[in-house]
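ok so for the tutorial part 2 we go from a plain amino acid sequence to predicted structure tokens. step 1 is just haveing the sequence, like this:
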Amino acid sequence: MPLNPSDSAQSSLNADAAASGDSRTKLSRTSVALHWTVAISMIGMLFFGLYLDDLERGDAKTALVALHKSLGSLILFLVIARIWWRTRQGALQPLGNHPHWQHIAARASHHVLLFGTLAMPLSGLLRSIGRGRPIDIFGFPFIPQIFAEKNEILSAIGSTLHEWIAYALLIVITGHILAALKHFLIDGDGTLQRMLGARVGQSASGKV
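step 2 — the prediction. this is what the tokens look like for a chain of 208 residues:
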């Protein structure tokens, strides 16, 4: 059956909207890509950091720490891009019929995740700056050496923040994953599918 020209035009508009902006039923490709890129990168870096903590000092650890710093610096740019994009698009509209407190908890967890993913690499940079070291990204200068000697206060603040933010993020991310599974397995409201890039129904209200 041939398509109505108006239907074709509407389909084109929907495709453009999906690529450039978010709606309640469909997230843009940019939103999906930034979400999963930052999420996978941050989780990987958290476990990478835990591995480094248990590694004995030596040339191998020094090389891995340099790799960790370079990757963390790159992730910082991704996080900034994601926060800018999310601010531009606005908060995601919830799907399904859930108690008000769950909407508040979800919104709070999203804010904590956004703040934590930004604070994590910044605290790592602060620790390196406090230790009187320049920061490069795979050999390319990023932040020059600021202090000729170790600044004990900045180093301690950066180290403490980096450690505690890491543990806080692990807890919040675990809760976020469990909530996503609840939306998928129990509520069936399309929240997880939407974050995977699928279009959900206009009246996604979950199971009754």
